[in-house]
Give the backbone structure.
Amino acid sequence: MSRNTVARRPVAGEFVSLREAMDRLLSESVSGSPFRTLWSSANGQTTQRPLPLDVYATTDEVVIVAAAPGLNPDKLTITVEQGVVAIRGEIPNAVESKEAKQATWYLHELPSGAFRRSVPLPFEVDAAQADAHFEHGILRLRLPKAEQARPKQITVRVPGAEPAALSESS
């Protein structure tokens, strides 16, 4: 080969071996290898993911949407303190329901147990004006922006002209 020639080597074999290694790692983690302890609690039950959330802000409010199927809204606690909203509750375990007592379980993935999620807020909110609705397993929490956090328009004064007052923008 000359100095100006680039040798091409087949790399597909290297990717296949990497893919095989990843497939093996994932299948071992599910079948009970030492990696299994990364996803299991001390009593052998699978640990649950935290309450899944969507959080977004508009110019007027922060909206938090949480998916909590099976949650009794009476068992839900929401607090706002020092710029952080905390959502706490408990989702009952389907295995412990009356109809499931004598059942043969083949798959049990629905989350259950106590949960707590804390979300730092992007701006100050007026917690007294908050609105929370729970329907079809979805919690929708609306936290309006506090008046002191809303943008203000400041008029520039010109010397010799009549002074203009500060005004708020909508």
